[in-house]
């Protein structure tokens, strides 16, 4: 039995290796022509063309999402969903690579170009094995992960209702090429994106008593929000309250009548999440009042905490061990305060979100969301092989 398993994995490895040029060329195409969240029109059109070429039927999900289906030749069985996100970030590309972005202000600086190409490569391999598969594999090419708006299009549209299991992969420049991360339990935090509009009253800076300074008020709010983690939650709670945007003022001698604050709350505990969001609004409102201003507060629930299924983590460990060896699998990676809306899929069906290392040099060591982020493209083959191996193993021995 062991010899047969080895032979089978060697065959899968070779089949994925045969797709290397296909996968890499697709990744470079997507990297060269990135599109930001909910604007992935040309990206999804290229994906549709590839699916047509592979011979997989698909349906559109929203304007820029696609769900393709592979029905196994051995009849009905379990239904597994494999997911890749496809959107880019709104930032310039400074990699200097030959495949650098040609779309100013858009950059695949998180690796989603690799996610899409690896899953398409896996789809080709799985399609060639269709006759030997029992069950159904769905391929979700999802938009708008970066703004937490894509996975819910699949979930709220009912496209995942009858799915038994879900699986996803994220490339990771934090981990060395050849490493695969399969961690059970909580791995990524929730994400709330809040916005605070501060309303004041304009005037000349030489008469501050006649105005209501929204800029000073906003600055005070930003400062006071930092006390939430330090003074309102337990030291053992894992919480981030981060501010990414503060905009105010139109000229050096005008009291600002409006200011905008945008930030995020990250945590792993639903009760702590609710408590902290309430604190953000309360502190902002009372601080604004102290400065004779007022606020409007809004929040967008972008992602729930991402919690991997324990059995799925063990299944992923076994699948990954066939590819890179047990010694190269990390099962106790530290939790990340970064969020991913793959959590929406996990809220419907059990599964796991794995990470595949892509760092092999200084060039590929830049963090995600850095303008010089790049990957060692050999990691794409590990990702594609993991998709294939996990899918075949799960459908043969579902749990």
Automatic annotation (TrEMBL):
Keywords: Amino-acid biosynthesis, Diaminopimelate biosynthesis, Hydrolase, Lysine biosynthesis, Manganese, Metal-binding. Pfam families: M20_dimer, Peptidase_M20. Residues 194-286 form the Peptidase M20 dimerisation domain. GO terms for molecular function: metal ion binding; N-acetyldiaminopimelate deacetylase activity. The Mn(2+) ion enhances activity. It comes from the Bacteria. Its cofactor is Mn(2+). Mn(2+) binds at residues 110, 112, 146, 170, 369. GO terms for biological process: diaminopimelate biosynthetic process; lysine biosynthetic process. PANTHER family: METALLOPEPTIDASE, PUTATIVE (AFU_ORTHOLOGUE AFUA_6G09600)-RELATED, PEPTIDASE M20 FAMILY MEMBER. This is Amidohydrolase. It comes from Jeotgalibaca ciconiae.
């Amino acid at each position: 039995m062991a010899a047969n398993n080895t032979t089978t994995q060697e065959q899968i490895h070779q089949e994925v290796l045969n797709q290397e040029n296909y996968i890499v060329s697709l990744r470079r195409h997507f990297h060269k022509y990135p599109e930001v969240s909910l604007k992935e029109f040309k990206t999804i059109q290229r994906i549709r063309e590839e699916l047509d070429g592979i011979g997989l039927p698909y349906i559109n999900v929203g304007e820029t999402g696609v769900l393709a289906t592979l029905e196994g030749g051995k009849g009905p069985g379990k239904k597994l969903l494999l997911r890749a996100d496809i959107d880019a970030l709104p930032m310039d590309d400074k990699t200097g690579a030959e495949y650098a972005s040609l779309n100013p202000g858009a950059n695949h600086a998180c690796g989603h170009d690799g996610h899409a190409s690896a899953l398409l490569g896996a789809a080709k391999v799985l399609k060639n094995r269709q006759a030997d598969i029992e069950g159904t594999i769905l391929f979700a090419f999802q938009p708008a992960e970066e703004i937490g708006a894509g996975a819910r299009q699949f979930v709220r549209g009912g496209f995942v209702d009858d799915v038994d299991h879900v699986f996803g992969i994220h490339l990771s420049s934090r981990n060395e090429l050849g490493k695969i991360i399969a961690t059970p339990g909580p791995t990524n935090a929730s994400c709330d994106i809040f916005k605070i509009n501060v309303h004041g009253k304009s005037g000349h800076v030489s008469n501050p008593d006649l105005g209501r300074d929204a800029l000073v008020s906003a600055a005070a709010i930003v400062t006071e929000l930092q006390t939430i983690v330090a003074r309102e939650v337990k030291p053992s709670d894992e919480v981030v309250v981060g501010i990414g945007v503060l905009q105010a003022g139109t000229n050096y001698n005008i009291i600002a009548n409006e200011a905008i604050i945008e930030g995020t709350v990250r945590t792993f505990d639903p009760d702590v999440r609710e408590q902290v969001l309430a604190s953000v609004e309360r502190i902002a409102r009372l601080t604004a009042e102290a400065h004779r201003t007022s606020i409007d507060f809004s929040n967008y629930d972008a992602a729930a905490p991402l919690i991997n299924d324990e059995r799925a983590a063990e299944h992923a460990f076994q699948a990954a061990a066939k590819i890179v060896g047990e010694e190269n699998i990390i099962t106790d990676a530290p939790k990340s305060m970064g969020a991913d809306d793959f959590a929406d899929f996990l809220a419907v069906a059990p599964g796991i979100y794995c990470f595949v290392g892509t760092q092999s040099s200084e060039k590929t060591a830049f963090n995600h969301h850095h303008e010089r982020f790049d990957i060692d493209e050999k990691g794409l083959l590990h990702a594609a092989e993991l998709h294939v191996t996990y899918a075949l193993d799960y459908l043969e021995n579902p749990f």
